[in-house]
């Protein structure tokens, strides 16, 4: 009986695999899309919309004239003052497109409608004639004149004029790229281009056979292919050998920042971490994987190897490390397995629907194959598990087997589509996201010392967000067919490929692990004296202030090196200055009751000091008037001195303690309050945006950088310089202000920037830092009294002008900052938000 059940069970399993193999063999290659899909809505300027008639109308002629000339004062009148540099060359590129056609041509009537001007005109010229791109710093957006139509002798001519303003270095070459037209149907097959270089010389011409070639004029005919022309300035002599400084401050700062971060990271991990063998193996694995992943930056032929290392090698390495470190494996229940199977079935249904929609398998074949595979797998699991005798277990195994068969069939069909290079565009990213999710799952499990279901769900969601926002995942074309040329999102010059997104997500994960380490170390009161916690905190602070400013080559090696902002180094220096050694007279309370006693003793001592001051102030008058004898005065003075000696020699050290709370608890309070106080400045600095979670967090550095100082203030409050909350807050203000202003030194040093603009920039930065620091100090003063069960009025009396000085100063700073913010112009906004130097015309 047992043998018969085994034969039947394995026979059904083979039948299920056979059905899957049959579907895989029967599947047909999906034909690639012939052209990009038509937009849902069209307008009169959209030349890519389907039209009646032949693909290209006869008797059409397209002419493009490009003139390069120095930009005049009138051209530069609308350019922000801080963007112009007198040491550079300002260039005006004028592009004139002329389209000649029969007066009866239907396109002439369409152009006369002129809907959605000027946005539609840009699409018409770029798609119909081919976009013309010019390198250099963009001084202003492209200017477009209205189209001019003239009709004479049965011919209609339409003229489009576009003006581009660029700024280049004296020795920089000017490159003009004539892209191929993308409109379908085509306006014309061939178009004639006339280039007038002016004060420039044609140095290189790619894919060009000149029709006319003169020093001041170049004419050529171009078809459906891109053309590039590079110009060199006439008035600049290029030396045979360029003498360059051997020392570069930007490169030196980048190397120094990397060294400081590496040393601090080693100190943050500590000696105990390195003494464990699994940790050393993990470090060795990461050290071997990093060059493989980064090698693709200089050698694109290693792209596949980099993908395998990042999305397969590193997740397996992380899982192996987690299994070695954790005392027990994950305690997954049958419900967890069924839940994962359900997710797999949902994804499989999506892939099977794609296979049916695009004809990879006929509908009847797909339904039959799926049903046979699922039913046979379920029957095999039922037969093989019947001897267990537990109905619930048999049902779960049956459901798991059926779902696994459906998922396996979808995976096989996806592999067939991938082999023919026609597949759902986002399916690869989805698979990579699930593979990458193993990294945060294992990392969080090691950080919290256990496997948790919530961490798995959050890790999968975060992994999907790292590869794109939901709006991108749910795009209409995400699950259509792979297009030949898909637009890749960018951050500046960096293309956000899945590999780049994975690396950025890995850096974000590393930052999160450092924060979790601070949480674990900050559970004990002694963490404020721990060098590992201090190093971890400074690394997080430096990372929050990192700001790549381009790249340079290191020595003679052609390896790009990111140039990091000096703010990270200033943050390191100021944090080291801010974290002084704990005062020897400060006694840390072990709990809230001890904190309450220390605060009451401090308030008592403050009362005695006030009484002593009042005694000396009024004693002279009372002695002279005979109201008080010298013996009575000495007796009162000695009583006050005796009472003061009973409270120690150093005043009010209770206000410099952690108030009986853990460093992590205090740090979170400092971060939240600082974040709330800095949120109004988003009006000035802008709301963070990004194509995915990693780029969004990167753009949000300006939002969390100053609150990171607030977290440092709360976490290491007993070590912050000063013995009072407001004294410590003023020291925090000095450190944060030096760090924040260091990022604007280069902009403030610009000679073309107006003095008023510089004053506004400094006022906004100073106001932001001062308001956050003073507000945090006032909150901390209230919090210390609140934890002690005492009213705040005992230390800050609203009836005293001296006590009101600090709140009034905060209000005045907020008012000045508001005035500077409302008066800020385009130049100030550009400095605060960062200049965009790579706009498209």
TrEMBL record:
Ranges that cross the membrane: 247-270, 282-299, 305-323, 335-354, 366-386, 393-415, 427-447, 454-470, 499-518, 671-690, 696-717, 729-749, 761-780, 801-824
Alphabetized UniProt keyword annotations: Membrane, Signal, Transmembrane, Transmembrane helix
Superkingdom field: Bacteria
Signal sequence bounds: 1-21
Protein's name according to its UniProt entry: ABC transporter permease
Taxonomic lineage: Bacteria, Bacillati, Actinomycetota, Actinomycetes, Streptosporangiales
């Amino acid at each position: 009986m047992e043998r018969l059940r085994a034969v039947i069970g394995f026979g059904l399993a083979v039948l299920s695999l056979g059905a899957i193999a049959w579907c895989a063999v029967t599947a047909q290659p999906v034909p690639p899309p012939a052209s990009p899909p038509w937009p849902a809505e069209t307008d009169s300027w959209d030349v890519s919309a389907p039209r009646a008639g032949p693909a290209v109308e006869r008797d059409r002629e397209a002419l493009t004239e490009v003139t390069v000339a120095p930009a005049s004062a009138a051209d530069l009148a609308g350019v922000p003052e801080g963007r112009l540099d007198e040491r550079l060359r300002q260039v005006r590129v004028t592009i004139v497109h002329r389209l000649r056609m029969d007066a009866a041509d239907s396109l002439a009537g369409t152009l006369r409608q002129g809907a959605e001007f000027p946005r539609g005109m840009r699409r018409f010229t770029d798609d119909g004639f081919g976009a013309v791109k010019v390198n250099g710093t963009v001084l202003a957006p492209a200017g477009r004149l209205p189209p001019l139509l003239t009709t004479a002798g049965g011919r209609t001519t339409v003229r489009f004029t576009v003006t581009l303003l660029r700024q280049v270095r004296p020795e920089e070459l000017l490159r003009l790229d004539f892209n191929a037209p993308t409109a379908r149907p085509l306006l014309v097959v061939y178009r004639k281009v006339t280039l007038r270089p002016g004060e420039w010389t044609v140095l290189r011409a790619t894919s060009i056979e000149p029709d006319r070639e003169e020093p001041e004029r170049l004419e050529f005919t171009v078809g459906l292919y891109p053309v590039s022309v590079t110009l060199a300035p006439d008035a600049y002599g290029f030396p045979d050998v360029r003498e360059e400084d051997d020392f570069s401050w930007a490169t030196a700062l980048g190397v120094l920042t990397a060294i400081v971060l590496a040393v601090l990271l080693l100190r943050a991990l500590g000696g105990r971490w390195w003494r464990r063998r699994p940790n050393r193996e993990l470090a060795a694995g990461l050290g071997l994987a990093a060059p493989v992943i980064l090698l693709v930056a200089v050698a694109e032929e290693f792209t596949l190897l980099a993908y395998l290392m990042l999305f397969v090698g590193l997740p397996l390495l992380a899982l192996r490390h987690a299994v070695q470190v954790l005392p027990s494996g994950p305690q997954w229940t049958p419900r967890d397995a069924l839940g994962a199977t359900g997710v797999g079935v949902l994804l499989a249904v999506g892939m099977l629907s794609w296979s049916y929609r695009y004809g990879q398998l006929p509908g009847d074949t797909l339904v039959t194959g799926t049903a046979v595979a699922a039913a046979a797998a379920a029957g095999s699991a039922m037969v093989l598990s019947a001897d267990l005798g537990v109905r619930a277990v048999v049902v779960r195994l049956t459901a798991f087997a059926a779902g696994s068969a459906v998922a396996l069939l979808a995976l096989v069909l996806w592999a067939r589509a991938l082999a023919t290079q026609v597949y759902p565009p986002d399916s690869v990213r989805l698979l990579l996201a699930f593979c990458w999710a193993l990294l945060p799952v294992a990392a969080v499990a090691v950080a919290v010392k256990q496997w948790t279901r919530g961490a798995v769900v959050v890790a999968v969601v975060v992994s999907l967000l790292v590869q794109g926002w939901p709006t991108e995942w749910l795009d209409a074309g995400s699950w259509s067919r792979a297009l030949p040329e898909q637009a890749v999102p960018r951050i500046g010059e960096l293309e956000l490929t899945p590999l780049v997104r994975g690396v950025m997500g890995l850096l974000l994960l590393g930052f999160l692990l450092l924060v979790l380490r601070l949480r674990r170390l900050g559970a004990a009161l002694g963490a404020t004296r721990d060098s590992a916690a201090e190093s971890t905190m400074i690394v997080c602070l430096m990372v929050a202030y990192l700001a790549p400013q381009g790249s340079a080559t290191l020595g003679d090696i052609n390896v790009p090196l990111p140039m990091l902002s000096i703010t990270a180094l200033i943050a390191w220096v100021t944090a080291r200055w801010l974290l002084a050694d704990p005062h020897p007279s400060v006694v840390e309370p072990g709990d809230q009751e001890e904190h309450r006693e220390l605060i009451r003793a401090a308030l008592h001592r403050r009362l005695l000091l006030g009484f002593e001051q009042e005694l000396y102030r009024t004693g002279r008058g009372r002695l002279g008037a005979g109201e008080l004898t010298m013996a009575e005065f000495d007796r009162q003075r000695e009583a006050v001195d005796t009472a003061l000696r009973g409270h120690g020699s150093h005043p009010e050290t209770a206000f410099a303690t952690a108030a009986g709370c853990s460093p992590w608890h205090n740090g979170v309070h400092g971060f939240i309050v600082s974040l709330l106080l800095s949120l109004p400045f988003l009006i000035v600095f802008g709301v963070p945006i990004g194509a995915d979670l990693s780029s969004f967090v990167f753009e949000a550095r300006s939002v969390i950088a100053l609150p990171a100082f607030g977290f440092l203030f709360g976490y290491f409050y007993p070590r912050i310089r000063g013995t009072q909350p407001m004294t410590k807050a003023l020291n925090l203000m000095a450190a944060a202000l030096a760090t924040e202003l260091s990022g604007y030194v280069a902009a403030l040093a610009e000679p073309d920037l107006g003095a008023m603009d510089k004053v506004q920039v400094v006022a906004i930065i100073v106001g932001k830092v001062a308001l956050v620091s003073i507000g945090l100090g006032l909150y901390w003063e209230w919090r210390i009294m609140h934890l002690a069960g005492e009213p705040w009025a005992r230390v800050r009396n609203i009836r005293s002008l001296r006590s009101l000085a600090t709140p009034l100063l905060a209000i005045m700073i907020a008012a000045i900052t508001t005035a500077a913010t409302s008066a800020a112009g385009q130049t100030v906004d550009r400095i605060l938000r960062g200049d965009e130097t790579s706009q498209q015309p």
